[in-house]
Structure prediction request, 108 residues.
Amino acid sequence: MVNPYLLIFVGALSNIIAVYFMKTSEGMSRPWPAFGVVVSSLLTQWCISQSLQNGVKVALSVTAVVVTVMAGSALMGHLLFSERLAALQWCGLTMAVVGVTIATLANG
Prediction:
């Protein structure tokens, strides 16, 4: 049995990859990036469903993935596509990641 928290991590990472493919697919008009969106999204859903079956609480799983993807996508947009993030956006992302980390640790 695979660690359910590893499955959440892989699901979040594959969702960030899906966001990358969405950005490069030019409105889903390029076939290979569009295919990457579909495959990455399916992998995300499978990983999250497996983590839920292995005992991870729904709220924790969904919150962890949403915040990880939000922060990862913002960072990827900044680093790969030269999108600007204001100081307040950086602050908000940091608070979200710290909040999910604390909630995860408090959950046991």
In short: Residues 4-107 form one domain. The two ends are 19 Å apart (CA to CA). The mean pLDDT is 88.
